[in-house]
C-alpha cells in the first residue's frame, strides 16, 4: 500500500508523535495504540512518542496513557488508530497537530485526516499495525511489549478467534506475535476474566434476554438495573457477546441507558449485516458488530422492530 510508505516517511520526519484512539476503548483500541507507540519508541529512541486518551484502569495491563500539555501538540504528527469517525476520537486536541493520520479497520464511511490507511478486511487495527511493521521490518523494531499489545487487540476483536473476521492471515500474524514474545494463553485468560459484578450481570442476561421468533434478541439495561449490579456503562462490555452463545439467536441488541436517559446500543449478528440499522440511528461500524444510539424508549422499540424484520426477511426455512 502506498499509504504505508507515506506514513513511514511522515513518522521519520516528525520529532513529536501523538497517538490517539477512540472513546470507551476496547482491547483493539488500546492494543493498536500501544503497539504502534512501542514499535516507534523502540525504532526511533530519540523521538518523543505519546499516547493520549482517558486512562482506563482495566486496560492498564495493555498500555498506560500519557498526560501532556497543549503546547506538545504544536508541530506534532497525530496518528489515530481504530476510530471510524472523528467525533469518537478520545482527547479532542487531535486537530491541534501539524498532520493527521487515520489507521483503522472499520468501513471508511466517514473519512478524516490528511493520510488514511484503512483496511476493513483486517480482523483488527492491531493486525494493520503489524502489517505496517512487517512491511518495513528492516527499518522498524518489534519489542515484546508491542507484540503483546497487538496480540491483545487481535484476541479482543476476533472474540478469541471465533468471529468471521478471523482469517488465515490473522492466525499467521498471531503466530508471529507469539514468536516475538507475546503470551497468547496469558493474554486470552486476562481478557476472559470478569469482575464479580459482571459475572452476576451475565446471569441476568441469560435470565432476561428477550428472544423473538425469527432469531432476533434484545436486552434493555436501565440505570436502575445497572445500579443494582453496581455497574456503569463501561462495565457492560463483557456481556455483549453472550447472546451469541445461544443456539437460535442470530442477531441481537444490548441497550444500555445513559445518565440523560438515552441509550447506547450495541448491535451484533452471526448472519445478516446489522450496520445499516446502526446508520439509521446515529451509529455505524462493522457489518456484524456495530454501535448506535437511541434517544428514548420509542427509538429503542424502533430498533428492535428493525432487527426483528431483518432476521425475518433472511430466515432460512
UniProtKB/TrEMBL annotation:
<dbReference type="InterPro" id="IPR051319">
    <property type="entry name" value="Oligoribo/pAp-PDE_c-di-AMP_PDE"/>
</dbReference>
<dbReference type="InterPro" id="IPR038763">
    <property type="entry name" value="DHH_sf"/>
</dbReference>
<dbReference type="InterPro" id="IPR003156">
    <property type="entry name" value="DHHA1_dom"/>
</dbReference>
<dbReference type="Pfam" id="PF01368">
    <property type="entry name" value="DHH"/>
</dbReference>
<feature type="domain" description="DDH">
    <location>
        <begin position="16"/>
        <end position="154"/>
    </location>
</feature>
<feature type="domain" description="DHHA1">
    <location>
        <begin position="244"/>
        <end position="312"/>
    </location>
</feature>
<dbReference type="GO" id="GO:0003676">
    <property type="term" value="F:nucleic acid binding"/>
</dbReference>
<dbReference type="Pfam" id="PF02272">
    <property type="entry name" value="DHHA1"/>
</dbReference>
<protein>
    <submittedName>
        <fullName>DHH family protein</fullName>
    </submittedName>
</protein>
<dbReference type="InterPro" id="IPR001667">
    <property type="entry name" value="DDH_dom"/>
</dbReference>
Amino acid at each position: 500500500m502506498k499509504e504505508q510508505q507515506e506514513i513511514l516517511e511522515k513518522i521519520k520526519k516528525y520529532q513529536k508523535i501523538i497517538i490517539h484512539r477512540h472513546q470507551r476503548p476496547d482491547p483493539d483500541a488500546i492494543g493498536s495504540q500501544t503497539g504502534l507507540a512501542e514499535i516507534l519508541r523502540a525504532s526511533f529512541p530519540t523521538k518523543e512518542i505519546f499516547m493520549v486518551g482517558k486512562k482506563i484502569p482495566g486496560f492498564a495491563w495493555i498500555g498506560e496513557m500519557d498526560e501532556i500539555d497543549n503546547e506538545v501538540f504544536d508541530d506534532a504528527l497525530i496518528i489515530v488508530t481504530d476510530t471510524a469517525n472523528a467525533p469518537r476520537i478520545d482527547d479532542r486536541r487531535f486537530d491541534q497537530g501539524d498532520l493527521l493520520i487515520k489507521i483503522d479497520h472499520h468501513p471508511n464511511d466517514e473519512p478524516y485526516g490528511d493520510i488514511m490507511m484503512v483496511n476493513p478486511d483486517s480482523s483488527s487495527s492491531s493486525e494493520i499495525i503489524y502489517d505496517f511493521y512487517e512491511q518495513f521490518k528492516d527499518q522498524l523494531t518489534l519489542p515484546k511489549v508491542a507484540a503483546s499489545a497487538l496480540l491483545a487487540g487481535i484476541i479482543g476483536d476476533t472474540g478469541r478467534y471465533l468471529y468471521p473476521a478471523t482469517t488465515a492471515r490473522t492466525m499467521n500474524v498471531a503466530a508471529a506475535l507469539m514468536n516475538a514474545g507475546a503470551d497468547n494463553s496469558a493474554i486470552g485468560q486476562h481478557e476472559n476474566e470478569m469482575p464479580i459484578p459482571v459475572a452476576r450481570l451475565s446471569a441476568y442476561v441469560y435470565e432476561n434476554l428477550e428472544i423473538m421468533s425469527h432469531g432476533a434478541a434484545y436486552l434493555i439495561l436501565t440505570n436502575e438495573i445497572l445500579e443494582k449490579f453496581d455497574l456503569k456503562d463501561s462495565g457492560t462490555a463483557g456481556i455483549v457477546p453472550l447472546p451469541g452463545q445461544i443456539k437460535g439467536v442470530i442477531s441481537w441488541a444490548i441497550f444500555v441507558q445513559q445518565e440523560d436517559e438515552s441509550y447506547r446500543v450495541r448491535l451484533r449478528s452471526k448472519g445478516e449485516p446489522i450496520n445499516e440499522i446502526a446508520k439509521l440511528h446515529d451509529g455505524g461500524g462493522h457489518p456484524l458488530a456495530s454501535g448506535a444510539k437511541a434517544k428514548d424508549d420509542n427509538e429503542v422499540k424502533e430498533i428492535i422492530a428493525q432487527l426483528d424484520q431483518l432476521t425475518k426477511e433472511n430466515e432460512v426455512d
